[in-house]
Amino acid sequence: MESRRYVLNERRRHLRVEDLPMSISVDGETYDSVNWSLGGFMVEEYDGNLTPGALLSVQGMGQAGGALEQVEVLARVAWSDASQKQLAVNFLDLDERAFEAFQVMMDCWVDRLSKDIVASHC
């Protein structure tokens, strides 16, 4: 079993989830996150033209491979790397549906963690 590592001295305000991909819908395109948190997300395979500081609207989010919850979330591009096709975004607000989608995702993530912990003690 792969061990999990947690960075304790990280400057981020929110815990990042890297092992439960979230799908994000932006401008009619859907991307799977590399990592996500209540503060934002990062995607790879991004070939759009958003640049740092640009405002955008997230229209959908949910567990990768599942149905997306329709949301209206204002966000800002933190950074982008066209050569690596990466885009990092910070949420500026979360509507109620987005917060509920996060609750479902976090419940699923915690459930996976608890199963891994129980399995590792057997």
Architecture overview:
The protein is of the alpha+beta class. It has one domain: Beta Barrel (Thrombin, subunit H), CATH 2.40.10.220. 20% of the residues lie in helices and 38% in strands. It contains 1 helix and 6 strands. The chain has a 6-stranded antiparallel beta barrel. β1 and β2 form a beta hairpin. It starts with 21 loop residues before the first strand and ends with a helix. The N terminus is likely disordered.
Q: Provide the low-confidence segments as ranges.
A: 1-10
- Ends distance: 12 Å
Counting helices, strands and paired strands, the structural category is: alpha+beta
Tell me about the largest β-sheet.
Answer: 6 strands, antiparallel, barrel
Strand content: 35-45%
DSSP strand tally: 6
Return the domain count.
1
Q: Can you tell me the CATH topology? A: Thrombin, subunit H
CATH class: Mainly Beta
